[in-house]
Amino acid sequence: MKPLSENFTLHKYGIDVRLAQIEDSAFILALRNSKRGQILHATDDDLQKQVEWMKEYKKREKEGIDYYFIYSFEGKPFGVNRIVDIDYENKSCSGGSWICAEDTPFERAFATLLIVREIKFDIIGVDYSYGYTLKINKQIQRMEKFMGGEIVRETETEIFYQTNREQYLKGMVKVKKALSLTD
What's the pTM? Predict the structure, then answer.
C-alpha cells in the first residue's frame, strides 16, 4: 500500500480528480448543504467552520489517512467524496461524503464511485473497503449492491457495507459494461 502524493491528480472517464484544497471550502459547503447533501450528516452553514475543518483535514492528508477528492468535468467542479480511516497494516479503509451537484448526469456521478474504488484498490492498494449509508438513502443502497458491496451489519438508521478486492473487480466489470465505460 502507498499513500497518495500531495499533488495527486487523475483523469478517468472524462472526469478530472484532484485532492481538495482549503480554497474548495465554499464549494464543499454548498454541496453539503444542498438537497442531496441533506442525506449526509447535518453540516453547519458556516464557511469559517468549513475552512477550519479543511485545515485539519489537510493535516490528516499529509499523514496519508484521509483523502478528500474534488471531481470536475470540463473545468467545472461537480462532486466530492472521501477515503478515510486508511489502515496500512490491515490494508483497509472507509469511504463516504459522496455528493454530486443536482445537475450532474447519472453516468458521470456513478463514474465518480468507480473512480474512488479504483483509487482505493488499485492506487492505494487496500484489500477491504468499508462504508455506510443511512437507510433512507435508497439510491446508495442500490449502487452498493450493484457494485458488489456486501451488507455486514445494520442499525436502526444505518446500513454498513464491506467490499473486498474480489468483489471490487467483479463489480467494476459489471458496472463498466452497464455504463459502456472504457478506460
Answer: 0.90
